[in-house]
Amino acid sequence: MPNYDGRVFVSLENTENGEVDDQTRFAYHQNGFSVWADYAGGDIVRGHLVGTTDEDGRLHFL
Q: Are 41 and 25 in contact (CB under 8 A)?
């Protein structure tokens, strides 16, 4: 299982109505199968993702 803790991601592309751009940074954290991220940048002041990962490293967010 990959570990996402401490990784930072940037979106490569977005949907037409999305607000995320290449200035938005997603800082990931992980504890076991629980994964969460804080993000900000560009037009985004602050956001949070909460989800899980599976044995194959696929992310599932709520």
A: yes
| Domain hosting residue 45, numbered range | 8-61
What is the pTM for the complete model shown?
A: 0.86
pLDDT in 10s for each residue of the chain, 62 residues: 889 999 999 988 888 888 888 899 999 999 999 999 999 999 899 999 999 999 999 999 98
Residue 26 lies in a domain: yes
Residue among 6, 10, 16, 2 nearest 44 (CA)? 10
Indicate the number of domains in the chain.
Answer: 1
With respect to residue 13, please indicate whether it lies within any of the assigned structural domains. Answer: yes
